[in-house]
Amino acid sequence: MAKRAGRQLAGISQVLGGLLDRAGLGHLIYEEKLRGNWAALMGPKACAIAKLESLKGWTLRIKVESATWRNELHFQKDAIRQRANEILGAQLVKEIQLF
What 8-state DSSP symbol labels residue 32? Predict the structure, then answer.
């Protein structure tokens, strides 16, 4: 970061992040990061049948195209949560909701 007259200037990402946080929309930054890494998070097969719906609060909502796949992914919820948090670099996802 650049310094100017004895103080640090914030980068654009910090400024935007701060604005979104104050507006109650900070989760959108993390949601977009997960969207950009969705194939790595879910794997090639699950990526095709499971779509990120939203990340709100501590809950990652995933829309799954069939009950069979929803059942399969139910058993992988802990692993999905762990990978999501690794991608985000923080323990932000506490719950996975499949629907």
Answer: H
